[in-house]
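General statements about sequence and structure are easier to judge against a single worked case. Part of our work consisted of pairing the sequence of a single chain with a tokenised description of its backbone. The amino acid sequence and the backbone structure tokens for this protein are reproduced below.

***
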Amino acid sequence: MTLSEQLAQWRNWLARLDAPVAPALLPGADRTAIGAALGPTVPPAVLDWFTWCDGVGHQPGQTIGDTYAIPGYWPISLRDAVEVKPIHADPDDPLLAEHWIPLLENGSSDLYVAVWSDGTEPAVASIMPEYGPASVEFDSIPQMVAVFNACFARSAYFLDDEGQLDVDDDRYAEIYQEIVGRHPDRDDDEDL
């Protein structure tokens, strides 16, 4: 399955669950605009990501939980990704020194970011400033989306009693282990 197909499947899971974010996901950005914002060497997976979704539209009465495309996070717009990047840039952190861009954000300063070297497939790192330097959480963007889709398919991601996306941490850890091949490094009380 291509990354574009995986991303479409993710959007379908959100619609099928009737997640509040489903109708608010914005169409993707134009490839020319992405290239202009991120440069000519942007990896194809990053192009696919931003052509899939360019953030979440604001709706009247929307809460932060209404924007979640996975528990705790929503797709960041290209414009916001470019604006947020300098805030987290760290020349002493090899993951955040050069080629990277935010993909998902939450209500604080936590991000999932694509990180890459020239000519390499981007990995996905999590930035959680309160827990130390960025760390690679997924080996690729397709792997991350495969975990998300499996979480929806196996009810690790679900709507809680208030209609917000939530996570069954044990199921998430099982799915992550199966797909990624290692145990997630996060604490059990954090959103995944």
Remarks:
- The two ends are 23 Å apart (CA to CA).
